[in-house]
Amino acid sequence: MNRQGRSIISNGLDPEECRVAVLEDGKLREMYVERMWERQRAGDIYKARVDSVVPGMNAAFLNLGDGRNAFLYLEDVKGGKVEPDQEMVVQVTKTARKGKGARVTPRISIPGRYMVLIPGGRETGVSRRIEPEERERLRRIARDIRPKTAGVIVRTAAENVGEEELESDLRYLENIWEEIERESTRQNAPCLLYQDTGLLGRVLRDELNGQVMEIIVDSPEEFASVESFLRNFGVSDDVPSLDLYTGTVPLFEFYGIEDELEAALDRKVWLESGAYLVIDQTEALTVIDVNTGKFTGGETLRGTVLKTNLEAAVEISRQLRLRAIGGIVVVDFIDMDNPEDRTLLTERLEGLFRNDRHKARIYGITKLGLVELTRKRSRADMRSVFTRGCPYCGGSGWVRREENVAMNIKRFLRKVVLSSHCEALLVEVHPEIASTIARDFLRQWEESLNVRIYLGERPDMPWDKHRLEFQGSVEQVEQRSAIFEDREKGRIVHRTDSA
User: Fold this and answer.
1) Top-level CATH class of 45-105?
2) Which of 24, 307, 326, 355 is the most exposed place for a label (fewest CB within 10 A)?
3) Structure-derived torsion over alpha carbons of residues 467, 471, 474, 477, reported in degrees to the nearest 10
4) Residues sharing a CB contact under 8 Å with residue 340, sequence separation 6 or more, in sequence order
5) Right CATH for 6-38+198-256 from 3.30.420.40, 3.10.290.10, 3.40.220.10, 3.30.70.930
6) Domain span(s) for CATH 3.40.1260.20 in the chain
7) Cα–Cα distance between 473 and 447 in angstroms, integer?
8) DSSP of 81-125, one letter per residue?
């Protein structure tokens, strides 16, 4: 759909998984996902116990509870020393990923709508994205209202906000910290002391800066929560519209987001001109190759190459945000011999990343014609969230995670139920997907969708595909399931009574 401005669309109807999409002029810009089993996330505060200290790594490993360990750099600790079995309050700065534990720090920061409170700190900072004159005004206010026992940072969203609203936000954060301190004296380590607001709340806190035109949710509970958020966080001057989506077509499908998500998992990204990118992620870095593809360009080769590279630069900045790619990125643009063109490309990249919330740095063009850049890691990248190593090729390829395939199937089933009002369904899926659904989701799905679900194992079914074999009354589907099992030996139909 051709929508102008910025939109936030939240698919929070399923308790197993919440997804929030940020669209800009109708195009997917950023995607956030949170699943119910992913309890540990950046911003969470724990009372942890030191398991071990490794001097050779200048680090310690901390027990956060539930068998989860975290990594702490000793240089982050005042005095640079901790002891085994020592208890300490820490905050997750990087979530666990790719076999690595979470990283934590004893330096706590609690973000609000306009301010960030840093207990024990002494600094008074202001976002560098704010113009100098406004930054100085906000710095003066921050110095006046800053608590004696904490530092503060003024966020970008505070631009042109009055002192009363800033002070109210800061007092709210102080109350949170006081409650954390109380809990830290009552609870035994290891334990969770504080968890940041839910996914949609965090996205709204970061994104609501006057540019968001609309918020669309599909959950009545989230609708009420966002209404409260808009009232409490003082965005009345630029309040976006808030709508509850009640259509029978799933929300992300209706707005074309599912298709954009599929495209964001592909290696190849086509540009409007007919040129394309190839994006390859490795453990150490991300490599992007720019190709002219079907683009034949204009009158000169130089003009064709420059136009392709500048167009590619725009899409690369978008893809890094969308795919949440951080770390080292190397881009192989099409070779340009003219120094002016190379300078123009570098300047374009710097401009594109200037307003990126996650700091990026462009290192120019190397002698080999490669552009090197780094981008701060903020969260798990999209590929690791939605896919895993292929179980059939020894990890050299990728398939969607079982739980992600399962959620796609649930959204399909909801659409069928809403359109047909049947009593029961027989769905054919890959055996491993069927086992995952039967074990983890089937009974809950039947209760939430008010329908009996039968899962037929099809070994020849593609991993991430499914097929509605039959729908009707429970008796009819039961009979069809028996036929399905008899059709070929070894096929199994999962039911809730056998799950």
Assistant:
1) mainly beta
2) 355
3) -60
4) none
5) 3.30.420.40
6) 401-494
7) 16
8) ---TT-EEEEEEEE--BTTBPEEEES---EE-SSEEEEET---EE
pLDDT digits (tens, 9 = 90+) for 331-364: 999 999 899 999 999 999 999 998 888 889 999 8
Two tokens, residue 377: 């890691």
462-484 as b/e, with b when 16 or more CB fall inside 10 Å? eebebeebbbbeeeebbebbeeb
Distance CA 39, CA 125 (A): 31
Query: How does pLDDT run across 129-178, given as a tens digit for each residue?
Result: 888 999 999 999 999 999 999 999 999 888 888 999 899 999 999 999 99
- How many other CB atoms are there within 10 angstroms of residue 267's CB atom? 12
Which of 101-110, 324-333, 488-497 comes out lowest in average pLDDT? 488-497
| CA neighbor of 243 nearest in space, from 493, 10, 488, 1 | 10
Q: What is the number of H-type helices and E-type strands within the chain?
A: 13, 27
pTM: 0.77
Q: In the chain, what's the furthest Cα-to-Cα distance?
A: 78
C-alpha span between 133 and 146 (Å, rounded): 20
- State both tokens at 339: 């120094």
Which residues in 218-368 belong to E strands, given as ranges?
241-244, 268-270, 276-281, 285-291, 327-332, 360-365
CB 257 within 8 A of CB 264: no
Fold of 401-494: Hypothetical Protein Ychn; Chain: A, (3.40.1260)
User: Is residue 167 classed exposed, middle or buried when 0-12, 13-18 and 19+ CB atoms within 10 A define those classes?
Assistant: middle
Which tokens in the block code for residue 168? 């109210």
Q: Where along the chain do the CATH 2.40.50.140 domains lie?
A: 45-105
DSSP tag of 412: H
Burial class (CB in 10 A: 0-12, 13-18, 19+), 277: buried
Cis geometry, peptide bond prior to residue 106 (ω within 30 degrees of 0): no
Where in the chain do CATH 3.30.420.40 domains reside? 6-38+198-256
18 versus 209: the higher-pLDDT residue is 18
What CATH number should be reported for the domain whose range is 265-375?
Answer: 3.40.630
- d(Cα 370, Cα 331) in Å, to the nearest integer? 6
User: For the residues of 251-292, what is the DSSP string, one character each?
Assistant: HHHHTTHHHHHHHHTSSEEE-TTS-EEEEEE-SSEEEEEEE-
